């Protein structure tokens, strides 16, 4: 059987669109979510809505973990029979050991895998894969595609309104002082994945209404300054908030294409129900 030229491997923190879900060359490796001794695979046996329901009743706060290197090795061994090479795109290495685990898994095989640290998560991974597929159609080699995607990560823009401060704190993504002040003052923090892939608070707003308008204003500014044509509004079990944000955005920027979707269960552990994020790429030369 003649091998296909290229497979794509992503982790489950990516926004898995219907196109990616049904694409024959895309392989999604799930992260793990732990409630005490019980382990679930993200997107396979624990949906985002089930996660939020379990958090409300669970005695212990859930933890997340990356797939073991051996899990990646199994996938790479399997696809080596059908492909010449693979490109693996993973969530930022600054927030997870998933990329390192994937690289370790590849070292257990003889299969050529080219790695891309997305320096992001969710749509940041998704758009890199879509862009990579576009490049593959032009005849570029896997090495050339991977190198181009590493540069493309700098085009990522994101603003995230955290739904549950206590989950961000319990998950180790927020200092005790930040949590105390935010809780006491009812501040809505706006956080961001930096171009280096780190999570940082960039602003704080006094009400959710103002925070939602903050997101609309940032998107509108990028539309005016960068000519963006598409934005993703991702949410944590809050379709109503995403719809509200979309309606406000359409009033301000009617021609902008807007896509809404859920963040993965793994991301939901840290961000919580009620999170809303605006994510997009600036298409620079």
Automatic annotation (TrEMBL):
Q: Which InterPro entries match?
A: DegV, DegV_C, DegV_domain_contain
Protein name in the entry: DegV family protein
Q: Which UniProt keywords apply?
A: Lipid-binding
Task of the protein: May bind long-chain fatty acids, such as palmitate, and may play a role in lipid transport or fatty acid metabolism.
Gene source species: Chungangia koreensis
- A Pfam family: DegV
Q: Which PROSITE patterns match?
A: DEGV (PS51482)
Top-level division of the source organism's lineage: Bacteria
């Amino acid at each position: 059987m003649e091998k296909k030229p290229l497979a794509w491997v992503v982790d489950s923190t990516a926004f898995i669109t219907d196109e990616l879900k049904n694409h024959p060359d895309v392989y999604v490796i799930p992260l793990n979510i732990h409630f005490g001794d019980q382990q679930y695979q993200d997107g396979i046996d624990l949906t985002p809505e089930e996660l939020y329901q379990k958090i409300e009743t669970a005695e212990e706060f859930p933890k997340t973990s990356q797939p073991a290197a051996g899990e990646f090795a199994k996938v790479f061994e399997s696809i080596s029979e059908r492909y010449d090479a693979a490109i693996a795109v993973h969530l930022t290495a600054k927030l997870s050991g998933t990329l390192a685990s994937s690289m370790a898994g590849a070292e257990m095989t003889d299969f050529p895998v080219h790695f891309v640290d997305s320096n992001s998560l969710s749509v940041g991974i998704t758009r890199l894969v879509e862009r990579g597929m576009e490049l593959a159609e032009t005849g570029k080699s896997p090495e050339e595609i991977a190198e181009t995607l590493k540069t493309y990560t700098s085009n990522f823009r994101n603003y995230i309104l955290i739904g549950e401060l206590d989950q961000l704190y319990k998950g180790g993504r927020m200092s005790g002082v930040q949590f105390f002040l935010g809780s006491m003052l009812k501040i809505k923090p706006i956080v961001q994945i930096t171009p280096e892939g780190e999570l940082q608070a960039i602003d704080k707003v006094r009400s959710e209404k103002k925070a939602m308008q903050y997101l609309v204003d940032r998107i509108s500014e990028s539309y005016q300054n960068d000519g963006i044509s598409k934005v993703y509004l991702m949410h944590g079990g809050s379709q109503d908030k995403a719809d509200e944000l979309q309606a406000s955005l359409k009033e301000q920027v009617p021609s902008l294409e807007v896509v809404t979707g859920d963040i993965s269960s793994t991301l939901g552990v840290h961000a919580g129900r009620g999170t809303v994020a605006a994510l997009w790429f600036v298409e620079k030369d």
